[in-house]
């Protein structure tokens, strides 16, 4: 048993050999949330980065143990708030799998369209925020103009703009708005006309390219060993898109490409996300005209009870693989829930990626990891 | 061919920068593209979605009647105890004792706008209203009683 | 036609008629000082608001539009706020240098006002080595920045100040070469001579290829010299520190902030003088009628118009491009700008000798 003084000496290395230890504190314009990074610097080079988490830990998993299976879904919207539909979808899929509930086709189509819209909205915000970190303040506003159209669609149909709580076990909570198809088509038309803007301002810009090429390299083996998923792993050449490998809902019926790059640097991660936006548009285009008529929710009992056992399901959020794992004792509330958050594993690779590079590269690396801290801290 | 690479480097760099500048310059000379809404000056023309989840209300018709039977389904469905239904016993004209709603206490400060109470209600008594200006100086004003004083249930609702 | 030289002549005659010569000189100095300070204050107000409005319109939003009509009094409100803030001095900071640094930077700005010709015959001091004076005085601003970084007793301020210092010193070279290529065309360092030589056309058009290349290099170099984006790594908000002015608050920070905008105005004024003709209206060759028409617009309007156009250009850069990392910044200067400007100077000399310019 270590004495108290020994524990303190063990965990607070105060920089030997002329190294500086500085805090990129919880409040910082560039960390996209309350993330505390303890950075050990040697002059201008980074030796080690240690993230300290927990500033927004709200004990969501414990809280869900006292909520019924219908009630706990709204909390997952608040975990990764940029992919709220997809998080809700993961939980709903798990309950449907456990209780063998049939989901009507109409609900499946609408769920996939909403998931892809959410993915585009999340990537738009990421694009704006990343450009802003690197000093280009204008693409943020252009990206938000497109995102505003998506949130308007969400507001019309689901009633909320960020934390939607519209997907329930069995289908949707209520039917879509009559203007849904029209507005989605208008959005697709506008998005396609604005794609060249992002290319001109950010992708082809020589300053942006020289700041992100060759920075923060993550090899494929390292990506797998750290458990990175999503665009971070796909930019290193690892094929891990859940929509292709373990298709759910109607993903096996639509045609889209899994975007894989092999360079593994920040620019590759950037390109993967931009191309993913285009692939999402492709998916939506194939589905939007063919939404079948019918019920929007399947028949479920009033009180949901998962049979005794362990259940796991996974979905592909904008950040990576989101997993929901429930241990059920047969009651109306789960005995234990565990959420596998994609941001947590992606963040663990930050030290490996950024050690040895300069401070200026840290922003470029962290921006492309697309971290949402409430997702990491739950 | 170092000189050729050098010159093409410079040329590509400069043209990419100029293309970016053309884009932002275009926006500068087109002020019609500005999409800022100047709230609170535009309250008269502000349009919100009908389904926007602002707060829970109990619609009353012109006879000051609602359709809430006091079954507490909404209280059971709410994940965090926002709604509390206070019931009382009423005598119907036939002389039977029936449970009826006394007051439906709704705490706006706790509500997460998840809509589960609206979906759970068997008689469609409550719905979400699109109001969004909830700021008050006194926190007790956020605890609302949803059924109006003196209102009673409509005939024929079970 | 409104002209400022009439005004100065009138004031001079009135002073000479009423006071003895020494008193006239003293009074003229006092008037010039007051005008310079007023110019600074007004410029600060106008430029900060201009920056915010330009930024807003590029970003498809409105800028400040509540404080006063069109947001005119926004900067006044900002200045009042800065004055009322507590001016903290760090504990172990070098008090003399800490307090002196903002004033050094402001002084450089004021000294540089002297040779600039705002309108015809409206110059404070027309010395025969005007351009050399400008180059040398503008190098002094590095001292103020290094003083600020050192005296803050803060290792990140020092780091930022060192980076700023290296950046400014390197980009002075390219700016100097760009200026030199115009001097090669005009053959004189005096500002009045340079402007008068542009009577039949601005050097940007007369000295075709080398002048255009010099102009581009000059604009890039002065953006880097004044620590503006995309070269503002030293003071960027999303980097680790705010650079050499981290520890300054209140009125001293306001002085640094003001000095940055004044510097932008001054370098744009110099660029306008050298490349775009200063107060000289747009004349094309010997087209008498057209030139006479252009002369109707007062020369001060020409000067201000050109300067503010260049200021707009620099602001346009800031809101379009991301930041360069510090080693890429120095890379750009030493590997690209300097060789190109050397080659350009050679080209300009050859063209000037053979008379191949217009």
Task: Describe this entry's structure for a reader.
The complex is a heterotrimer of chains A (378), B (158) and C (358). Chain A contains 16 helices and eight strands. With 378 residues, chain A is mainly alpha-helical. Chain A has one domain: Cytochrome-c3 Hydrogenase, chain B. In chain A, the strands form three sheets. A three-stranded antiparallel beta sheet of chain A has the order 1-2-3. A three-stranded antiparallel beta sheet of chain A has the order 6-7-8. In chain A, a hairpin with a 2-residue loop joins β2 (36-42) and β3 (45-52). The longest helix of chain A has 29 residues, at 105-133. Chain A is globular. Mean pLDDT of chain A is 86; it is low at 7-13. Chain B has two domains: 2-33; 44-153, 2-Layer Sandwich (Alpha-Beta Plaits). Chain B contains three helices and seven strands. The model of chain B has no long low-confidence stretch (mean pLDDT 83). Chain C has 14 helices and two strands. Chain C has a two-stranded antiparallel ribbon. The longest helix of chain C is centred in the first third of the chain and has 38 residues, at 21-58. Chain C is globular and about 65 Å long. The A-B interface holds A 67, 70-72, 74-75, 138, 145, 148, 152, 155-160, 163, 165, 168, 173-174, 177, 197, 200-201, 204-207 and B 12-13, 16-17, 19-20, 22-24, 35, 48-53, 77-79, 112-116, 119, 128.
Topology of helices and strands:
The complex is a heterotrimer of chains A (378), B (158) and C (358).
Chain A: H1 4-11, E1 20-24, E2 36-42, E3 45-52, H2 60-64, H3 73-77, H4 84-99, H5 105-133, H6 138-158, E4 167-168, E5 171-172, H7 180-203, H8 206-212, H9 220-226, H10 231-234, H11 242-245, H12 266-288, E6 309-316, E7 321-328, E8 336-340, H13 342-348, H14 350-354, H15 359-369, H16 373-377
Antiparallel strand pairs in A: 1-2, 2-3, 4-5, 6-7, 7-8
Chain B: H1 2-28, E1 55-57, E2 65-66, H2 73-77, E3 83-91, E4 97-107, H3 116-120, E5 127-129, E6 143-145, E7 152-153
Parallel strand pairs in B: 2-7
Antiparallel strand pairs in B: 1-5, 3-4, 4-6
Chain C: H1 4-18, H2 21-58, H3 74-84, H4 95-112, E1 117-119, E2 122-123, H5 130-139, H6 141-151, H7 155-186, H8 191-196, H9 203-206, H10 208-225, H11 251-276, H12 288-294, H13 299-318, H14 326-354
Helix pairs in contact in C: 2-11, 4-5, 4-6, 4-11, 6-7, 7-10, 7-14, 10-11, 10-14, 11-13
